[in-house]
Amino acid sequence: MTAAANRQPTIHPTAQIAASAVIEGAVEIGAHSVISHGAVLVAEGGTLRIGAHCVVMENSVIRSTSHNNCTLGNHVMVGPHCHLSGCVIGDEVFVATGVSVFNGAQIGAGAELRINAVVHIKTHVAAGATVPIGWVAVGNPAQLFSADQHDAIWAVQQPLDFPGYVFGVDRNSDGVMRQITERYGAFLARQRTAE
């Protein structure tokens, strides 16, 4: 039975999981993969699949969502303190320390996301591409910006509609954060009681 069918983790017997790692929900971990101390792998309503020969380093958080499954291909390295949510990472991708990749993003095979890079929602980074240290990738196809180019980033990011896409909340409605936290909190509570 797969993790998706029973909502429980499925871990290949050759995978190595640190004692302090948290693995919850429909998570599948492939052969010879290593999950380090403090890593958190959580399937929140969707499935999370880690391929074969992957390394997830200390204190990284990887999660699926109810709208976006999360998949890491084979031979992917995720550095310490990364955050990957509802994204698809191709084979042989290097995700350096502190990288964030958001819902609906797709990273092509052989790409490099260097230290503290950010890949926004629904952004597609091409196979073999590099997002430089501290840079921001936005759009499909990805446009790359240094972090000091807020206005240029926002011009591409705003139509991607983070509050609407991720939380189903209209950015222009009253009490956006109140709506987001109440809606997301209720969703998480339902997930915990369903397990």
UniProtKB/TrEMBL annotation:
This is UDP-3-O-acylglucosamine N-acyltransferase. SUPFAM superfamilies: Trimeric LpxA-like enzymes. The lineage of its organism: Bacteria, Pseudomonadati, Pseudomonadota, Betaproteobacteria, Neisseriales. Keywords: Acyltransferase, Transferase. One of its GO terms (molecular function) is acyltransferase activity. Its EC number is 2.3.1.-. Signal peptide: none annotated. It comes from the Bacteria. InterPro entries: Transf_Hexapept/Carb_Anhydrase, Trimer_LpxA-like_sf.
